[in-house]
Design brief:
This protein is mainly β and 108 residues long. It has strands spanning 3-10, 17-20, 27-36, 43-51, 54-63, 68-72, 76-78, 83-89, 99-107. Strands 1, 3, 6, 7 and 9 form a five-stranded antiparallel β-sheet that branches. It starts with a strand and ends with a strand. The model has no long low-confidence stretch (mean pLDDT 93).
Length: 108
Amino acid sequence: MAAFSGGETAFVSTTWTEIVAAPASGRKQVLSVTASNRDTVAHLLEIRLVVGASNYKLFQANVPASQAAQMLVGCIVLDNTNESLEVKSDGAASVTEPLAVVAVFEEP
């Protein structure tokens, strides 16, 4: 049965952090990804699609302190067991790490 899922993931400095895992079966439609810079200084935030050993940059933005960026405009479909989405920041947070908020529609 199809279902909506999603959630919040804090991501740490320059380490790529998975925010949507590859589907075990079926497909995942990623409806939105918003990243909030909860720090006191601006950060460059990035999102990428991982397909096996290949990486594809989808979006990057210099996000001011206490602001958010819509990092995925439109829908992206993950329909293979080696596809996932990851995010990272350009550096360590002074106070609080950025937060990614994701909305996903999962199909069997």
